[in-house]
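Troubleshooting log. The previous run stalled partway through. Resubmitting the same two chains, unchanged.
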Amino acid sequence: MGLLSDPVRRRALARLVLRLNAPLCVLSYLAGLAWFLALAFPPLTQRTYMSENAMGSTMVEEQFAGGDRARAFARDFAAQRRKSGALPVAWLERTMRSVGLEVYAQRFSRRLPFPDETHERYMVSGTNVYGILRAPRAASTESLVLTVPCGSDSTNSQAVGLLLALAAHFRGQIYWAKDIIFLVTEHDLLGTEAWLEAYHDVNVTGMQSSPLQGRAGAIQAAVALELSSDMVTSLDVAVEGLNGQLPNLDLLNLFQTFCQKGGLLCTLQGKLQPQDWTSLDGPLQGLQMLLLMVLRQASGRPHGSHGLFLRYRVEALTLRGINSFRQYKYDLVAVGKALEGMFRKLNHLLERLHQSFFFYLLPALSRFVSIGLYMPAAGFLLLVLGLKALELWMQLHEAGVGLEEPGGSPGPSVPLPPAQGVGLASLVAPLLISQAMGLALYVLPVLGQHVAAQHFPVAEAEAVVLTLLAIYAAGLALPHNTHRVVSTQAPDRGWMALKLVALIYLALQLGCITLTNFSLGFLLAATMVPAAALAKPHGSRTLYAALLVLTSPAATLLGSLFLWRELQEAPLSLAEGWQLFLAALAQGVLEHHTYGALLFPLLSLGLYPCWLLFWNVLFWK
Amino acid sequence: MAVSHCLSRAATAFTAVLLFSFGSVAASHIEDQAEQFFRSGHTNNWAVLVCTSRFWFNYRHVANTLSVYRSVKRLGIPDSHIVLMLADDMACNPRNPKPATVFSHKNMELNVYGDDVEVDYRSYEVTVENFLRVLTGRIPPSTPRSKRLLSDDRSNILIYMTGHGGNGFLKFQDSEEITNIELADAFEQMWQKRRYNELLFIIDTCQGASMYERFYSPNIMALASSQVGEDSLSHQPDPAIGVHLMDRYTFYVLEFLEEINPASQTNMNDLFQVCPKSLCVSTPGHRTDLFQRDPKNVLITDFFGSVRKVEITTETINLQQDSEIMESSYKEDQMGEELMEPLKYAEQLPVAQIIHQKPKLKDWHPPGGFILGLWALIIMVFFKTYGIKHMKFIF
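Second attempt completed without errors. Output:
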């Protein structure tokens, strides 16, 4: 008989798999972690290179010399802003028109689901002002965007000054083949989101914005600029965008080319670039920066205005000028020249940036890891889930076959042992209840914030966070209650079926998440996979329970916050960490409602129910 | 008295001999001049200049073609005898910071676009089909005269091509290619239709030498900027315009041609020396085996200029013995008219071998691993299912 249909051979095969399974799982998990840590080291990282032929190797001499003009504009803008308290729309319109642009304004307003404590806003309304520089000899089919987000906490007036001076300089040139849009937004990212939605004529986040009067064609690339002072010591670039999306690597290569050409000091993740890649120092520093990027990408927040552009497949970067205690400083002319060079190169583009990578990790500004090289790390981790599921399947079938043999029933062989039939029915209940808990976690905090604020002496934002935590903790008490719903006929082996379903569910979810946002998938897999694989109702329950709680999604979030601050060399104490955690929870819910960030729904509707299933398995009676 | 008479006769004889020798020297001088006059057999010159790439970053290909155009026009070939094909308009590209100019030297020293450029095939009209139609003359009757190559059997044609190429092909407009075999066949058609006397083919692309490998028609001389496996490099970028302005080979050819005037006696051997490997980084190549004359006797102006040969002499010249070349070409023409057969100089396609070809024995290779594995699997499954006892019925 064949290998799989012969019961003797199959049992032998099953025993082999069961014997090898545990070491194989451990090996696979360790291989996944080791592969991830090896990503910063030379054979897996490559030097970056410019892939787009149109943005080729020739450099253009920059001619921007409007440093004084930029500073004057910045001074005026700051004064006007102080006077009016909000964005000085009339002054901006007047100035842009005097520089020679076509000026338009857009009003927008939004009521946030609950008050935002970090930015202190609830009912947000503002105006975006943008000016279009039309290409002198080309049809207005494509455009580039230079945007400066102005919020109430960061006035960004130097950046506005530089934007206006650049606009004046660009207006005098005749070699533009694409229109250039100079955008000043109010309320940071909310304004940017309103402008983008109106520009592309969609409404994904419930923002109320007036339609745009002036339009300039498909946006090919965008650069967001944030300057805190008029002398900068370094330029920091941010690439991670909403839901972990990244711009095309060519845009980063372009920025890096101009850093080198202008002799500017450019940083990634706020850290200096490692120089020495031959010894161990360089790769270790690279690993630190890689971990920072993984944490930022996993959080799924838009780390700057550019993050919102990426959703519309517009490649974008945010440049932040940082003024720290260094001796050598660059003035606005140097920054302006870098921007001029970048825009001139982008002007040469004939198609959207598509030649280089869209999925990558950056250990340094000049090194990258491509998706083909980092995916095996996540693959190894998910293999553990697959192996465990296979082992459970074998055990269930062996149990079924084993039940038959001593019975010796000469009747027709039942395809599924009767124990499994009952098991399927008893699976549905835990699944439904876990999913319902997840739904409650997703919907109730925002819905019930007013009720909670009435009964308890807390503000609405705190009410949301506390409701979130309360529902999360209530899920821990579930197993003691589900057994009342489930029939008492649930046999001893029923937990295996539940665990099998939970493992497959987790593997599917993590697999899908990893494809689009590798960092989030890897982080969750690295923490949840061991606990999920080990959960069983026998053995030391307290140990497994502790492990499961420590690797639950919320605890992973807490841990990653601590790790993030640790890597940035600003470690947190426990109290600070807890406060930051609560703020992060509130921000997560808020960003889901205002920008459509997917971390909150993924965790509450997808991973939390899955985790609850494992919790149920652990406490199976 | 008899002695003096003898002496005087000797003196006259001597002077007669001297005069005769002088006369013969003078006569042979005139004959040399006449021989030089009929050194090449062409009476008119044509030029077909093709730039095959579009897009702003291929600025240098348009600049290449325009600089050859400029030289050729300066040396006398009129616009009516030049077919200029440019695949893109760099001068009026919105990205050009100096509109209506195309520069070949950085710092904008030399504007090769000029005031009187006449482009015959522009933009999307530069296709392989149009190029081959121009060469072979198979053009629809409605085509204007400026778009035709109206050459005859006494025309020397210069064909210059530039763009992106590879081993055996040249890319047109980012969408199609012309292969070296097609080009060779087109030249053969030209030869059979008597559309050229001599042809100079210059190509400036990567792996350019592969394009002239397949030529088999007589009277073709070919130059290329790089050998097979080498890339042709660009010369210098201009930081104000932001692109590379010229390719190295054509840049040095342009510099060389700027020294030439219609009366120059520079010959082809000098052109072969232009741009050695130290300047060009690639190795330029040339091919002269199909060419009847010795390259050192071929003037640059035979192809690049249109030089009217006018010599004023006061002597009468006997063309009988010195103009063997002309006579032989006359004779061959007559013979050609009678027999209507193509002349044999270089190797033609070996038609007999093609038609009566025996099938070539292919080397037998043992079956690959995959096929073996597949059969092994099938046999294993067969015997597993039906039992090993069946094997003894097979063997």
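Takeaways: The domain at 53-351 of chain A is CATH 3.40.630.10 (Aminopeptidase). Confidence is low (pLDDT under 50) at residues 404-419 of chain A.
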